[in-house]
């Protein structure tokens, strides 16, 4: 196993991690921005008003994107397992 193979696996892992985190992070960002805008317009500074909608939106995003996230992770794991013989020099 050489350095290039390790770097390639690390790069792929970081790309998959970013792809899996993107739906929840973008949802929380958009909802947080909308709630912050609403709070600044109405001058209502309540912490739960910011937290609860973000938590609900992230939960909905996980329900909607969950199947895709699991499929991406399973595909990445299968690809890693398929690369094992080549990494240890067997094939």
UniProtKB/TrEMBL annotation:
Q: Name one Pfam family in it.
A: Bac_export_3
Q: Which residues form the signal peptide?
A: none
Q: Give its localization.
A: Cell membrane; Bacterial flagellum basal body
Q: Which domain of life is it from?
A: Bacteria
**What are the alphabetically sorted keywords of the record?**
Bacterial flagellum, Cell membrane, Cell projection, Cilium, Flagellum, Membrane, Transmembrane, Transmembrane helix
Tell me how this protein sits in the membrane: Multi-pass membrane protein
State the InterPro entries in the record.
Answer: Bac_export_3, FliQ
Q: What GO biological process terms are annotated to this protein in UniProt?
A: bacterial-type flagellum assembly; protein secretion
The regions listed as transmembrane in this protein's record are 20-39, 51-70
The record's principal subcellular location, in a coarse class, is membrane
* Cellular component GO terms held in the UniProt record: bacterial-type flagellum basal body; plasma membrane
The UniProt similarity line reads: Belongs to the FliQ/MopD/SpaQ family.
The protein's job, in short, is: Role in flagellar biosynthesis.
Q: What protein is this chain from?
A: Flagellar biosynthetic protein FliQ
Classification of source organism = Bacteria, Bacillati, Actinomycetota, Actinomycetes, Micrococcales
